Amino acid sequence: MSDVPESNETSEPQLFYCPACREPARDPLVCGDCGAVICRRCGTPLESPDELGIG
To answer: Is residue 5 part of a domain?
Structure first.
């Protein structure tokens, strides 16, 4: 047996919105250096719904 807890239970993925494409980004890219989350389609930095003032 391992002392590492199983990670079968995952929380819901964070939803992000692309202001340029004007739609939710379901498969964003995350920069390995700075951690920025960007749109896979256009490269615009994504926003979370709490930053938009909706939801």
So the answer is: no
Q: Is the pTM higher than 0.85?
A: no
pLDDT tens-digit readout, 18-55: 999 999 998 999 999 999 999 999 999 998 876 665 54
CB 18 within 8 A of CB 46: yes
- Within a domain: residue 10? no
Query: Closest Cα partner for 26 from 37, 34, 35, 36?
Result: 37
Answer whether 1's CB lies under 8 Å from 10's CB: no
